[in-house]
Amino acid sequence: MPDPTQQYLAPAATQVSAQQRRLRIAQGVLLLFHITGFLGLGFSDNPAFYLQFVPLNLLLTVGLLLAFQPNRSVAFAWFCLVTAAVGFFVEVVGVRTGLVFGFYKYGPTLGPQWMGVPLLVGVNWLMLTYTTGVLTRYLPLPAFGRALVAALLMVGLDACLEPIAVRYNFWQWRFDVIPLQNFKGWFAVSLILQVFFNRSDFVKRNDLAPFVYMLQLLFFFGLGLLD
Fold first, then answer.
1. Which of 19, 80, 180, 205 shows the greatest Cβ crowding within 10 Å of its Cβ?
2. Which segments does the entry list as coiled coil (predicted)?
């Protein structure tokens, strides 16, 4: 007589296996896009050809990342909308006043703009806030401690990104100098968004998040070494 326990274990094991396959496929797709971009930007005679795919790569990364969010609830949708909106409008204030990050302006690389800021900038703030927030959930720290660590992870990634962004005209700084104010502003905004992340009521687990953060970090750090 078959063990009834096995009848419940088999579907569960199948579901886990399917989830792992989806995860491997998503990781493979992102790895392919980033390796292609790395080789094209770092070694091609025509990096402009590859730069036109930067918005697509960002949208693909965010789309796959959010697809692995379990239980996409109303609270999660609200978190995404608020985070993207805050990130975007903080950049609008930053571009127009220079008070948040210093004086800078965006180039054409990140796609269509509104009020001098690419629309995808808000999406990028969402991706970084969500990814680092999920990563720090594994730390045995109180909520504010995790928010601090996550904000530092965001600033660390920005430090790797900045020279590449300037090189490929994502944005340009006044006098071609990246000010210390930029990193202070990034930390302050990141910390506010991380506190909001921790207080938002949704499942904070994502199997793809660690891969996305490390891939972004290695991509920009690697390009920086080629300078």
1. 80
2. none
